[in-house]
Write a structure and sequence with these properties.
20% strand
């Protein structure tokens, strides 16, 4: 898929990016709580509790709100030329330009969203110094990088599950 906001990353780069992510964050996917968190959470990161959103009465509206707030934060924190990496475990990866994204994160216009609604969803800078890691089974969103933490965490207003500050 390619449009103004999303460009699919070719296979060779996809493998390199995932290798780098796996190594840097010691990614260990698991549905078992004994193995969580699934990444080595970066210093200064804040992990937010999404569990309340996963309740049937709150899911659709909660997903939409998280996606909207994350997008607005990405647009405030990064300039218009910034292309982020959007990784979806065992699915295609994309370069994502937040300033070019309009509307909701819905298929087919958006291949994935910041909210981890069934898989690990990761949005991060090319140098991997700032980003979000959504864990679908732990029901968390880990946010790292000083600028992103300062802007996004207060805006979401979700309970903190873990804080590395």
């Amino acid at each position: 898929m390619t449009n103004d906001a999303w460009t699919e990353i070719p296979d060779q780069r996809y493998r390199r990016l995932w290798d780098e992510f796996d190594q840097r964050f010691q990614f260990k996917p698991s549905i078992y709580p004994k193995d969580w968190p699934s990444i080595a959470e970066p210093r200064g990161s804040v992990t937010l509790d999404l569990a309340g959103i996963f309740q049937p009465d709150h899911f659709e509206a909660g997903c939409r709100r998280v996606d909207e707030v994350v997008l607005a934060s990405l647009q405030r924190v990064f300039d218009e030329q910034t292309a982020l990496l959007a990784l979806d475990w065992q699915h295609p990866a994309y370069e994502f330009r937040p300033h070019r994204h309009t509307g909701a994160f819905t298929w087919p216009e958006s291949p994935l969203s910041p909210f981890p609604d069934g898989d690990y969803h990761i949005f991060l800078t090319e140098d991997m110094d700032q980003g979000t890691f959504g864990h679908p089974w732990e029901h968390t969103l880990c946010v790292w990088g000083d600028d992103l933490v300062s802007d996004l965490v207060p805006e979401l207003g979700l309970p903190v599950k873990r804080s590395r500050r």
